[in-house]
């Protein structure tokens, strides 16, 4: 400890620069990171000299987060910690994280937990001008207390993730905002103001029962959007397509929206298969050039004809995409027991360019991975038949539409939750050499 206390100041500053996180919090989901929150305090505890230097290093004190429900005995300590960060960070941009249960509103002046959360929200309001990234999940009573921050300016804000069921009426004006995750059902935006909220947006994830929110945000940012995630059933009230010339990644919770997206540069599509039907096949053909397809929701055998339109994919994922899992409600994919059998029998060959497949945390109907043996269920038997066939496409009795040359499946990836006995049994049934 004595040797540490005689470190020269310039060396200490280099150490602190290396330890100070220069990155915003992850988008869209950012849980409270206790390790990051403790970094400046651990450095300050080394010795008096380190404490003096660390307190003068404002870039160390930029993580403005709090656990959602600490024990009451620690409420005062967390509040004092945030007040100290507010002071020592000086004018540095802050990374803000505060999550609570949006369905459990504790608005009661006699409730210690609600008073603690309300004080945290008041502190967040006080530093709103310095937000660099923010992830907020609040019930109605606390969301309404954020009104002043949400109606103001956030000149440094880059990443914003908001889960407000109710109580939010506006977005902050953030000229540098590039990533927005919005799950809110009370937001109202005037047409002439939307462009002032999101002029630099490149990634948008939105879930709202108000379709005009989707339309206004997409329209205002369509020229620069690279990633778009529409996480709610959405009826396009204008009935005109959205021109998205730069879009690379798209998530659609509703296949009915496919006809309204024109994205010539699209490379990845995540699609909720619930409700897909054959009349959407022409719309799916507009996305036939995508390379990576992600399927989630209820994956029905009826949807096979629509999915066959994605004829150029080389990578398939059967799993709920992360941006959907970060929402308030999600279910893991449900595979119909005849889905893979339908793919095996489909003519022409479905996905002839497929080289990689990832089996995520999914369920077959009427099948339990942990209690049944492989092959005893038609769904798993169909999966094995599909994988076997795709590992040696030259032996298939039916070919492609002769527009592309089919290739062999090269890699199979299993979700960790399925990498137990069932995962080993699945790999054991497949050809050697596939990993």
Q: Rg to the nearest angstrom?
A: 25 Å
What separation lies between the terminal Cα atoms? 49 Å
- Average pLDDT over all residues: 79
- As a percent range, the share of strand residues is 15-25%
Instruction: Please state the overall shape, judged from the principal axes of the Cα atoms.
Output: globular
* Contiguous runs where pLDDT drops below 50 for at least 5 residues: 367-376, 431-435
Helix % is 25-40%
- Describe the biggest sheet? 13 strands, parallel
Side-by-side strand order of the widest sheet: 1-2-3-4-5-6-7-9-11-12-14-16-18
User: What is the structural class?
Assistant: alpha/beta
Number of helix segments? 16
Number of strands: 18
Structure characterization notes:
This protein is α/β, with parallel strands linked by helices. The chain has a domain at 1-187. The protein is built from 16 helices and 18 strands. A 13-stranded parallel sheet has the order 1-2-3-4-5-6-7-9-11-12-14-16-18. It has a three-stranded parallel sheet with strand order 13-15-17, with no helix packed on it. The longest helix is centred in the first third of the chain and has 15 residues, at 112-126. The chain is globular, with a radius of gyration of 25 Å. Mean pLDDT is 79; it is low at 367-376 and 431-435.
